């Protein structure tokens, strides 16, 4: 069946209504008495799926890098995804991303920098020391997760590339290969998926070049083999399956701006005070807490990372620069 999405990224009823599968699983874990562990214990032990290679990481010392919220279950984090290259339904990436080949993989680092280059995945992974960061991820659609990511600050890669004084922004381009990605047949976005950051945002220690989650390498549906995660921005800024990182002078035009500029600004910082033109951003549903009577959570300014990133936007009108 062909389901027409009237606008990209519109929360579908299926996203607002919890899936029966989640309820069943929650009832099961509650029954086993597994739900009462302390956040710290869960953070250290949040288990992966056990099917992918392990990716060892030290606990991050970066300020704000480990929230105390209970991590989302691996099953939820890997079955409720946005990765439009594999379809627009939340279940599509988990069902269809097995066709993605995360190895061999090359990331081109280019543009306004003294040391451009093509990095093979293994070389890329050696540019920094792997850390575990437990971040909140808030989707513009109004749901959130808490995920223990593995990677290192994007700043590590940027410093090695030695950007020139002309490099004001960083542009990320992700894979667009029809033979691996069935969703590219749809015109829902202008492929390839492109995102961008101002240089100081990209250099912020919380900006994570991400290779794994839950102590293992990234599953395909979560953006294998390498993605970025920007915890203070709406989820769509966290581009998956990156193949190119380019330093540029002018502000890049992201795929979401291209699709609907009045709805998805370049900054897209999480902000409960600036509603999306078609819905409020004041509250969010935490995946895993989606029972019939579960209360929504209040969305926090900069997704709760205001102390760390607020100064990047000092003096800016955040209603204009949404
Ligand atoms: N290449 C690519 N990256 C993407 C997307 C996408 O469709 N394609 N979706 C974004 C959106 S809208 C969200 S909310 C997050 C979801 O990340 P997760 O599935 O790992 O939770 O990925 C982001 N990165
Ligand atoms: Mo999203």
Automatic annotation (TrEMBL):
Its EC number is 1.8.5.-. The keyword Metal-binding applies. Its cofactor is Mo-molybdopterin. The keyword Oxidoreductase applies. GO terms for molecular function: oxidoreductase activity. Transmembrane segments: none annotated. It catalyses: L-methionyl-[protein] + a quinone + H2O = L-methionyl-(S)-S-oxide-[protein] + a quinol; L-methionyl-[protein] + a quinone + H2O = L-methionyl-(R)-S-oxide-[protein] + a quinol. Gene3D superfamilies: Oxidoreductase, molybdopterin-binding domain (3.90.420.10). Residues 100-256 form the Oxidoreductase molybdopterin-binding domain. It is an enzyme of class 1 (oxidoreductase). It comes from the Bacteria. Mo-molybdopterin binds at residues 81, 84-85, 139, 174, 222, 227, 238-240. Keywords: Metal-binding, Molybdenum, Oxidoreductase, Signal. SUPFAM superfamilies: Oxidoreductase molybdopterin-binding domain. Binds 1 Mo-molybdopterin (Mo-MPT) cofactor per subunit. InterPro entries: MsrP, OxRdtase_Mopterin-bd_dom, OxRdtase_Mopterin-bd_sf. Heterodimer of a catalytic subunit (MsrP) and a heme-binding subunit (MsrQ). Belongs to the MsrP family. Part of the MsrPQ system that repairs oxidized periplasmic proteins containing methionine sulfoxide residues (Met-O), using respiratory chain electrons. Thus protects these proteins from oxidative-stress damage caused by reactive species of oxygen and chlorine generated by the host defense mechanisms. MsrPQ is essential for the maintenance of envelope integrity under bleach stress, rescuing a wide series of structurally unrelated periplasmic proteins from methionine oxidation. This is Protein-methionine-sulfoxide reductase catalytic subunit MsrP. It comes from Pelomonas lactea. The gene is msrP.
